[in-house]
Amino acid sequence: MARGIKTYGSVCSGIEAASFVLGPLGVKPLWLSEIADFPNRVLSAKYSHIPNLGDMRGIPQMIDEDRIGVPDFLCGGTPCQAFSLAGWKNGLNDDRGQLTLKYIDILNVIDKKRVAQKQTRACFMWENVEGVLKDKTNAFGFFLAGLLGLKNPIECEKWPNAGAVFGMDRNIAWRVLDAKYFGVPQQRRRLYLLGGGKDFNPSDILFEIGEHINDPYTVSANNRMPSLFEDGIAESRPLAGVINGHNVEVFREYSDCLYAAYGTKWNGNAASFNGSLFVCQDGRVRRLTPKECERLMGFPDDYTNILPGSRATRRYQAIGNSWAVPVVSWIFDRLVNQNVQHIKLPEHTAYLIEPSYSLYFIDRFAESEKGWVNASAYPYDYVLSHMLDIVDTDVEDKYYLSPAGCAGIVRRKIERNVRINERLEFHLRNGFGNDTRYLSKGVVTGLFSE
Prior knowledge:
It is built from twelve helices and 18 strands.
């Protein structure tokens, strides 16, 4: 079990979901680290009492020279773009991917100081896109090996969505969790890796013991979302309703993953065809507002609206790069308060890397002596929400799609021969009637005639 966690340091801090969660838990910040301009403005406005060290690459020397404090807990998510489709999956060949290795350097210097002071090693959490598990440069294998002090990367043909490794100096566990099961209606699957010294079992924090359950969104009997029941069968909540006197319709119960470029590239990806990042209000299709995006991530309204006239594109980017607050709140609460059950991972999931290093693979559920080990994307105390729950009807006209924008989405649907949400297409067409002047040549005249 972990010792009491009283202090933390944060790298790649962004708009500091970590501080937003750890503050109320009574954990004291020692320092943050962020270089991007707009997130730094947010930090200055909300966390001016916490030193911002800027570039994380200078932190090891600062710690080594005793210029900054040594925390009990290190958290951060090095840039995910190196491991995402948007970043072309360049992994460790990308400068941003190299920051993953710098994270290890920071942790090693922290532990060097702590061990010299006869303290236990620091606990740590690292967050990233689940694409890191499929990275062609084996970034995850390199990262684990670096954390464990191994000379060679751990090779794996296919990294599972959850697992653990116990080494000579550190224990580590990881699990992919999806924000849509934590009370925000956003499908946001992220890898959360937790570790610490040999006195710490991260499996107790990230995994749970209980029954084997199926995906709450596919099993009606377990669906806790307010629903209509008839003969024991749950019906999904309606996708339309009246909110503050406005007719509002959404196109799915939960959205696709909110991405950092949503403010500028909202009309060319999958979400523009399934409609999950759009709202139809009073018959007009619009983008989500920054406030609605804050709600999708679990932040309070206007958390990023720090100055009069804060640019929406900057807010979208900062929000999309942050962490889903309810997910890290679930992890941090279990980590700090230790109200968890000890978990002994089943031997049939174990592999031996080399002497004194045991690796465990648990893709979703694994049967153990005390019950099922839950390592799925949803916790036992899951909470489901709905897109209608985050809608704000006080919307400026600039967030509504123009006739040209509506036509562009429909045109791309035709050119690419892809499926589109039927209700979304209806509203896109209705937005400009039979006017085809915005369509490229080659599209049949009268396309929007019913």
